[in-house]
UniProtKB/TrEMBL annotation:
Protein name as annotated: Glutamate dehydrogenase
Organism, scientific name: Enterocloster lavalensis
GO MF annotations, alphabetized: glutamate dehydrogenase (NADP+) activity; nucleotide binding
Domain of life: Bacteria
Subunit composition and interactions: Homohexamer.
Length: 433
């Protein structure tokens, strides 16, 4: 903590992981301590920070902060998204890069961990302003990335439009047409099913966890927070599998539709108009919009936090449990506070942490890289099937590690341990670097 002041999210993420790893460390005490494995594991290999100047529509120069955290390259080139949101700072990106390292390891694909972004807020900006920002951001970032070194992707505030502008600028500066970014448009190297991948993957692993514990998704009532990329496609897959999503949200408030969310209305608001979730009630007058936090007070069987970090606290967890919620799978990164996570684990509900549950996005990004290298495109079904296989496998790894270390059903410990084992093996084999 003293070495990384002012980075509470990073401390939180590290603490949760180290708590789980105690079991592994104790079992490998001499080997790990001597090699300084943990000290190296929690320190990013490199943090790059830079100035991003751009011109707004009034002709004024604006300046934002840009970052890339290259956390760990033991098992492959750095890979992880870019986040554009006013809350972005170095500590948040370090937490995300740290989590990403374990997540990428769990996918079984050769990808190291990284994360980047800016405190730029795309909300309310014109297309031209977003393009100007992206071009300036890439004018600095390009020198630190490449298809074999570091491959960024999207995250909060960075969707298809932003990836397109970033890619265009990279190509213009370097002259290279290569798979340096994932989440690209389908006309220039993007993969089918990447847009859906995180949300679909979340439901594939949720389903696996339910099946493994003698339960099923069909007929259940589900809450999904957020209304962005992950939330929308998680909702789509939940509905395809016969369960009912009754609520979604954004940072202003939440909607409750007892008849089940009409996803075409949400997609129109969020993907086409870039509007607010409250507009849902204009199209569906029987639904109710409530300003502020509070989505977790709605009774449900299953909760899927898909918005952002620390959006579900200890009180929310207690309310969910009191209302009979028996499963939580995290679409977002670290949406549950430490207190909430501990409560879910203690009460032994079915709880799948983000680094396992939302790994489908980066896994499909890995598949996009493979297609770019092969100069081929696979069909939607092919990619979706591979994604499904990867999520089933991640569940098996987390469940197996939890069993091996005597905490069966604790998928928090299982995911942390399974992700860690591969990275640490590779780090030790590569010497003191
Ligand atoms: P989007 O930008 O598409 O959507 C984010 C959603 O979360 C929006 O509804 C947004 O509401 C809401 N939100 C963001 N910040 C806050 C906040 N501070 N308080 C309340 N609500 C907030 O992002 P994604 O759907 O891509 O990402 C959501 C989460 O999933 C993030 O944690 C991300 O790291 C994680 N993730 C995403 C992956 C992907 O492939 N996209 C892969 C793996 C993880 P508003 O519009 O009001 O800001």
């Amino acid at each position: 903590v003293a070495q990384n002041p002012g980075e509470p999210e990073f401390h939180q993420a590290v603490k949760e992981v180290l708590d789980s790893l105690k079991l592994v460390i104790d079992a490998n005490e001499d080997k790990y301590r001597k090699a300084g494995v943990l000290e190296r594991f929690v320190e990013p290999e490199r943090v790059i920070s830079f100035r991003v100047p751009w011109v707004d529509d009034n002709g004024n120069v604006q300046v934002n902060k840009g970052y890339r955290v290259q956390f760990n390259s033991a098992i492959g080139p750095y890979k992880g998204g870019l986040r554009f949101h006013p809350s972005v700072n170095q500590g948040i990106l370090k937490f995300l890069g740290f989590e990403q390292t374990l997540k990428n390891s769990l996918t079984g694909l050769p990808m190291g961990g990284g994360k980047g972004g800016s405190n730029f807020d795309p909300k309310g900006k014109s297309d031209r302003e977003v393009m100007a920002f992206c071009q300036s951001f890439m004018t600095e970032l390009y020198r630190h990335i490449g298809k074999d070194t570091d491959i960024p992707a999207g995250d909060i505030g960075v969707g298809g439009r932003e990836v397109g502008y970033l890619y265009g600028q990279y190509k213009r500066i370097t002259g290279l047409y290569e798979g340096v970014l994932t989440g690209k448009g389908l006309t220039f190297g993007g993969s089918l099913a990447r847009t859906q991948a995180t949300g679909y993957g979340l439901i594939y692993i949720l389903n696996e966890m339910l099946k493994h514990n003698g339960k099923e998704l069909a007929g259940k009532t589900v809450l999904v927070s957020g209304s962005g990329n992950v939330a929308i496609y998680a909702t789509e897959k939940v509905q395809q599998l016969g369960a009912k999503v009754v609520a979604m949200s954004d940072s202003n408030g939440y909607i409750y539709d007892k008849d089940g969310i009409k996803l075409d209305v949400v997609k129109e608001i969020k993907e086409v108009k870039r509007g607010r979730i409250k507009e849902y009630v204009d199209a569906v007058p029987t639904a109710v919009y409530t300003e502020g936090k509070g989505i977790w007070t709605i009774p449900c069987d299953i909760a899927l936090p898909c918005a952002t970090q620390n959006e579900l606290n200890g009180e929310d967890a207690k309310t969910l449990l009191a209302n009979g919620c028996f499963a939580v799978a995290e679409g977002a990164n670290m949406p549950s506070t430490l207190e909430a996570t501990e409560l879910f684990v203690e009460k032994k509900i079915l709880f799948m942490p983000g680094k396992a549950a939302n790994a489908g996005g980066v896994a499909t990004s890995g598949l996009e890289q493979s297609q770019n290298s092969l100069r081929m495109s696979w069909s939607f079904e092919e990619v979706d099937e591979k994604l499904h296989g990867i999520m089933v496998n991640i569940f098996a790894k987390a469940a197996d590690a939890a069993e091996r270390y005597g905490v069966p059903g604790n998928y928090v410990a299982g995911a942390n341990i399974a992700g860690f084992e591969k990275v640490v093996e590779a780090m030790m084999a590569q010497g003191i670097v």
